[in-house]
Amino acid sequence: MSALNIKQGSTSHSAYELRDPHAEIVETHTLAVMVDNEAGVLARVIGLFSGRGYNIDSLTVAEVDHKGHRSRITVVTRGTPGVIEQIKAQLGRLVPVHEVHDLTVEGPAVERELALFKVAGTGERRVEALRLADIFRANVVDSTLESFVFEITGTVEKIDAFADLMRPLGLIDVARTGVAALSRGI
Questions:
Q1: CATH architecture group of domain 27-102
Q2: What is the per-residue pLDDT across 47-79, written as a single tens digit (0 to 9) for each?
């Protein structure tokens, strides 16, 4: 009898199937939070996440209504569906929060990120970096004899793919803005 089939008549499971089949799936969600643009609001929102052990994958914030003094915080976070619902409910209860939108479930949304990549290299590596930048529609925003700084905009997956290809070519530094997102349509 195999080591995986200990009980008489039990079903055999692959040794590679280590995930609990009854565990809830962890999902990534993009939340748009409209808040008052005043001191301490961002700290309160971040405090909600850190105080409960929730992770923030990406965070962007900027004033979007100068007259109304409102800012939009875009947060990308991960959790089970229950945890995501809990995060949205807790955000909605914060006093400076006016609206919480889960762009992941409310319908189609546009998500983009801006990144800057510094790549050092000469000769063939330099030529290959320029070729890949062209394929990814990255712009050269700074150039020296030994390095380039590329600017690229796109989805998180596109930015990650570009980074993966630039690493062996001499990637030495990266700066990313975090995700900015809006729902599609009206």
A1: 2-Layer Sandwich (3.30)
A2: 999 988 999 999 999 999 999 999 999 999 999
Domains 27-102 and 109-183 share a fold: yes
Q: Which alpha helices (H) appear in 41-122, and where do they start and end? A: 41-51, 81-93
Let me know the angle formed at the C-alpha of 80 by 75 and 81, rounded to the nearest 5 degrees.
85
d(CA 53, CA 130): 41
Q: Which amino acid is at 90?
A: Q
Residue with tokens 């992941």: 104
Q: Whose structure tokens read 């030994």?
A: 146
Write down how long the chain is: 186
pLDDT of residue 24: 79
Sign of CA pseudo-dihedral 110, 57, 61, 43: positive
Q: What is the pTM of this model?
A: 0.78
CATH fit for domain 109-183, picks 3.30.43.10, 2.40.10.340, 3.30.70.1150, 1.10.10.10:
3.30.70.1150
In the predicted model, residues of the chain with pLDDT beneath 70 are: 1-23
